[in-house]
Design brief:
By secondary structure, the protein is mainly α. The protein has 11 helices and no strands. The protein has one domain. Helix 2 packs antiparallel against helix 4. About 35% of the residues are buried. The mean pLDDT is about 85.
Length: about 250
């Protein structure tokens, strides 16, 4: 298994996709952090409470980069027909999927660490420069840990979705459209919003919440943060298993 993970890591590093996805993750983290810092400065100047939880959890905004990275994990192999030699080298398809999951989890952990560190650097340096006090209570430590785990699980979610669909374009469109468009619409659809808490988007919102979420209908009730995290983990694992059954178990060539 160690050799398989090394092989998969080498595949990821052999192209520049990992670098561009890391740059994208850093960009989204930077933009989110800047926006929250500007808001925090305005709130402080107006005498309003500063949202420290939101300030130090902006790394979760890099989720789109981790999602895309995961989506490319298997869809690239199918698109460029490299899945055949890959399976010739590793005939056990479940072992192959486990190796890919482990290697992409390692990259996701690295990406998440970079994003968390970047978020902290921007917030601490900027607020210290303008004299806004820094506080690490208000659930900040737990929020940072949840943002970190969300990024890692989003990468696994993308890998599973890509394994299910196999088609790179379809997987990219569905994954991005769901999380950034449909997810914000579903909680307003009358016959859907009662079960919205159990969707992947609802699970992520619940996991990253700090007791309340603004901008949602009053009759939409999310799960507790811990339950939301477990549910998103279940979604990610379920997609990986379903992707293995539907995609890797079928004829490849």
């Amino acid at each position: 298994m160690i050799n398989l993970v090394r092989s998969e890591v080498l595949k990821i590093r052999s192209t520049q996709v990992w670098f561009w996805m890391l740059l994208l993750a850093a960009t989204f983290t930077t933009l989110g952090s800047i926006g929250m810092v500007v808001t925090a400065i305005n709130d402080h100047d107006d005498g309003a409470p500063v949202d420290y939880y939101g300030l130090f959890t902006q790394s979760q905004g890099a989720g789109i980069a981790l999602l895309v990275l995961g989506l490319l994990g298997l869809t690239t192999e199918f698109r460029h027909k490299t899945i055949t030699p890959t399976l010739l080298a590793t005939p056990n398809r479940w072992r192959l999927l486990a190796g890919k999951a482990a290697s992409y989890a390692l990259f996701a952990i690295g990406y998440a660490l970079v994003c968390v560190a970047l978020n902290f650097a921007i917030v601490i340096i900027w607020l210290s420069a303008v004299g806004v006090p820094l506080e690490y209570s208000h659930g900040v430590p737990g929020g940072v840990a949840k943002a970190f785990l969300t990024l890692v699980l989003t990468g696994m979610f993308g890998l599973g979705l890509g394994a299910m669909l196999r088609n790179q374009a379809a997987a990219m469109v569905l994954g991005i459209v769901y999380f950034f468009i449909l997810d914000n619409v579903l909680n307003y659809v009358p016959w859907v919003r009662k079960g919205y808490a159990y969707t992947p988007g609802g699970a992520v919102k619940a996991f990253n919440s700090n007791g309340h979420i603004e901008g949602m209908p009053g009759d939409v009730h999310l799960l507790a943060p811990a339950a939301g995290g477990v549910l998103f983990l279940v979604w990610s694992l379920a997609l990986l298993v379903a992707g293995g059954r539907l995609s890797l178990s079928r004829d490849i060539s």
